[in-house]
Amino acid sequence: KITAEITAIGGFVPETVLDNKALEQMVDTSDEWIISRTGIQERRILSDKSLATSDMAVFAIQNLLETSGLNADEIECLVLATSTPDHVLAPAASMVVNKAGLKNAWGFDLNSACSGFLYALSIGSSLVESGRHKKVLVVGVDQMSAIVNYKDRNTCILFGDGAGAVLLEPAQGDTGIKDHYFKTDGNGVNYLSVPAGGSLYPASQETLDQKKHYVFQDGRTVFKAAIKEMSNSCLEIMQRNNLASDDVQWLVPHQANLRIISAVSHALDFPIEKVKINIQRYGNTTAATIPLCLWDFKDDFKPGDNVLLTAFGAGFTWGCTYLRW
Ligand code: ACO
C-alpha cells in the first residue's frame, strides 16, 4: 500500500505589517483587548493592489521549489485550498499553474474555508496513494484583507493574508499521512459567511449598501463550536489509532484564536509546549494557517514524530489529520 508523505514545505507572507496599534486608529479597539481576547499582535496584509491570492500561492510554491531543489515541471497536480480566489469564476489554481510554470500539472480549487488545507491534503494524499501521481502540491492560501471590513471591529482584528505549500510524494518508510477524520454541518452558514457575491445574493447596489460582501461572524458561537469540534476530532483520531497524549509529539491547530488553541490543548491533555503557535504574528490566514505553521516550525519536526493537524472553519467544516513525520 502506498502512503503519501510531506517531503517539502514553502511559505509566503506579505511584507506589510498591520499591528494592533494601527487597528486602534481604524476602529474602536485596543492592543490590550486584541491580545487578551485573541493572542494576535500583528498580521500581514497584501498591500500591492496588482497582486492577489494566486500570486501569494506562487511565491509559496517558488519558496518550496527553491529550498527543495525541484523543478516546476516535475509537479503533476496542484490542489489549491482558498476561499478568496482571484475571481468568482476561473479557478485560482489555473492562474497559479501558469504563473509558477507548472507546465506538466493540472490543478483545481477547493473551498472549505479554514479547514480547506486539511481537506486538500486528504485529496492530494489520495492521488498519491492510488498511484495516480507521484508529486502533488497542496497549497493553502487566502487574502482575507480582500473580504474584511476594516470598519468592523468584530472581524477586522482577526484576519491576515498568507500562503503555505507542501509537496506530497510516496513515502519511503513507515512515515506519512496515516488517517483523516472530517465533518461538515451546513447550519454553520448562519454564523460565519460572506453572504453576497454568490448565486443566492448576486452583487447588487443593495448588497453593496448592506456590506454583504464582507465576512460576517457570530464570534461566540464559532468560538464554542471550534473548541468542541477540534478537540473531538483529535480525540477520535487518537482513539482509533491507539494514540495516548504522550504518543503525540506535536499538535498543529488552525490559528483562529489563542484561547481556542489553549482550550483544545487542555482538552487533549497536551502541554502547550507541544502545540505549534504563530497566531501572534500572522493572525487568522484561513486556509493558510496550518501550512504556514508547518513552514515556520519545520526544523522542529523529527523523523518518527507523530503529528496531529486540526482545523475548524466556515461551513461549518472541521477535522483532524494524523501523520508520522
Ligand atoms: N475591540 C474591543 N471590543 C470588541 C472588539 C474589539 N476588536 N470586538 C468585539 N468587541 C466587544 C463586543 O462588542 C462585545 O461588547 P458588548 O459586550 O458590549 O456587546 C465584547 O467585546 C465581547 O464580544 P464577544 O464577541 O463576546 O467577544 P469574544 O470574547 O467572544 O471574542 C472573538 C470575539 C475574538 C471574535 C471570538 O469570539 C473568536 O475568536 N471567535 C472564533 C473565531 C474563529 O474561530 N473563526 C473560525 C474560523 S474563520 C473562517 O473560517 C474564515
Automatic annotation (TrEMBL):
One of its GO terms (biological process) is secondary metabolite biosynthetic process. Belongs to the thiolase-like superfamily. FabH family. The gene is fabH. The keyword Cytoplasm applies. The active site is at C114, H254, N284. Its EC number is 2.3.1.180. Homodimer. Pathway: Lipid metabolism; fatty acid biosynthesis. It is found in: Cytoplasm. It holds the Pfam family ACP_syn_III_C. One of its GO terms (cellular component) is cytoplasm. It is an enzyme of class 2 (transferase). The last Arg residue of the ACP-binding site is essential for the weak association between ACP/AcpP and FabH. Catalyzes the condensation reaction of fatty acid synthesis by the addition to an acyl acceptor of two carbons from malonyl-ACP. Catalyzes the first condensation reaction which initiates fatty acid synthesis and may therefore play a role in governing the total rate of fatty acid production. Possesses both acetoacetyl-ACP synthase and acetyl transacylase activities. Its substrate specificity determines the biosynthesis of branched-chain and/or straight-chain of fatty acids. InterPro entries: ACP_syn_III_C, ACP_syn_III_N, FabH, Thiolase-like. Keywords: Acyltransferase, Cytoplasm, Fatty acid biosynthesis, Fatty acid metabolism, Lipid biosynthesis, Lipid metabolism, Multifunctional enzyme, Transferase. Residues 108-186 form the Beta-ketoacyl-[acyl-carrier-protein] synthase III N-terminal domain. Residues 238-325 form the Beta-ketoacyl-[acyl-carrier-protein] synthase III C-terminal domain. Its main location: cytoplasm. This is Beta-ketoacyl-[acyl-carrier-protein] synthase III. NCBIfam families: fabH (TIGR00747), PRK09352.1 (NF006829). Residues 255-259 are annotated as: ACP-binding. The lineage of its organism: Bacteria, Pseudomonadati, Bacteroidota, Sphingobacteriia, Sphingobacteriales. One of its GO terms (molecular function) is beta-ketoacyl-acyl-carrier-protein synthase III activity. It catalyses: malonyl-[ACP] + acetyl-CoA + H(+) = 3-oxobutanoyl-[ACP] + CO2 + CoA.
